């Protein structure tokens, strides 16, 4: 029997979609573990997609990617079907870019990073300024485009609220013109933007559950807008809180806390690591050695903390 997703009668398909720009971290692994448990406990499929769109930061099958595949294997995460490599899918994104272009939703943007940052517009939490539409205004006024620059392409956003219900984070909505403005779907160096690639890939892989870090909650209204324009279904969303140490502090990247290299050197086998994460997530009363499969019957989204997930003392 096919497992069904919450409301929409579709077979459950989950995914993990890491960007291999650094060695995997316990926080990423927690995300993968939750996504896997959510899909497997519903009898669903689970897919792996490597988000290596930016081949300068993430060379194809580079050192971090190889370590990532090895870390996931060590942890016991299994996947269905072929691994999807975003760096190999430009032709697929071309087709959906063309579809947006045919709908008249795209326009070229010649603004440099320095020009954008010099603008007085408010900036988003990730440091990107809310776009004021100046290249669209220039285009509409018939003014010629600057020469000698390759344009990025922006998607025009509607003057509307886009909202959704997130199983972990609750109701979330944004008015796109004031929350981010027209956003980039293709960069000036020709690389497709994360927002377009993630929407196309999730849809074409039949993904019904998106489990990922809370930092991507604010990307979701943009992605839902893209799904609607491209005629795709919207998956169920689960934006999970940050993993912190026992004192509630962010794991320090500089000191290598939570880096899988250190975790594997310390623990040797995955079971105590899985147990510590399971206790932090409220799936076990205390940390103990377990396998991922043993956690499947204990998994329930209602148990997952809504704020920070705290690692046990001494981990
Ligand atoms: N590639 C993104 C990351 O590693 C996650 C994208 C997603 O799950 O939608 O943070």
Polypeptide structure, described:
This protein folds into 2 domains: 2-90 and 195-310, Rossmann fold; 104-193, Glutamyl-tRNA Synthetase, domain 3 (Alpha-Beta Complex). The strands form 5 sheets. It has a 3-stranded parallel sheet. It has a 3-stranded antiparallel sheet with strand order 4-5-8. By secondary structure, it is an alpha/beta fold. α2 (63-75) links the parallel β2 (45-50) and β3 (84-85). 37% of the residues are buried. α7 crosses α8 (220-230). It is built from 11 helices and 12 strands. The radius of gyration is 21 Å and the shape is elongated. The longest helix is centred in the N-terminal third of the chain and has 16 residues, at 26-41. It starts with 12 loop residues before the first strand and ends in a 5-residue tail after the last strand. It binds glutamic acid. Residues 17-19, 51, 198, 212, 216 line the site of glutamic acid (GLU). Residues 17-19, 51, 198, 212, 216 line the site of glutamic acid.
């Amino acid at each position: 029997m096919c497992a069904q997703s919450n409301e929409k009668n579709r077979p459950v398909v989950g995914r993990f979609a890491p960007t291999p720009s650094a060695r995997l971290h316990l926080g990423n692994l927690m995300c993968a573990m939750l996504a896997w448990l959510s899909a497997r406990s519903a009898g669903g499929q689970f897919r792996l997609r490597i988000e290596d769109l930016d081949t300068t930061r993430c060379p194809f099958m580079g050192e971090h990617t190889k370590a990532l595949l090895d870390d996931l294997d060590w942890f016991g995460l299994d996947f269905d079907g072929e691994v999807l490599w975003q760096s190999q899918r430009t032709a697929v994104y071309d087709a959906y870019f063309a579809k947006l272009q045919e709908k008249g939703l795209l326009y070229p943007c010649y603004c440099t990073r320095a020009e954008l940052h010099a603008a007085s517009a408010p900036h988003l939490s990730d440091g990107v300024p809310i776009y004021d539409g100046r290249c669209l205004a220039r285009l509409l006024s018939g003014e010629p485009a600057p020469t000698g620059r390759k344009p990025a392409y922006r998607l025009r956003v509607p003057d509307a609220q886009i909202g959704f219900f997130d199983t972990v984070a609750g109701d979330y909505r944004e008015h796109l013109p004031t929350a981010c403005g027209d956003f980039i779907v293709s960069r000036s160096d020709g690389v497709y933007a994360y927002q377009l690639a993630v929407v196309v890939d999730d849809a074409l892989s039949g993904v019904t559950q998106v489990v990922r870090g809370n930092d991507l909650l604010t990307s979701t209204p943009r992605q839902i807008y893209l799904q609607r324009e491209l005629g795709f279904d919207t998956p169920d969303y689960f934006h999970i809180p940050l993993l912190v140490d026992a004192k509630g502090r962010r794991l320090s990247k500089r000191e290598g806390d939570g880096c899988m290299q250190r975790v594997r050197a310390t623990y040797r086998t995955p079971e105590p690591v899985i147990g510590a994460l399971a206790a932090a997530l409220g799936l076990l009363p205390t940390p103990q050695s377990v396998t991922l499969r043993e956690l499947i019957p204990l998994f329930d989204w209602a148990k997952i903390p809504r704020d920070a997930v705290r690692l046990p003392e001494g981990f």
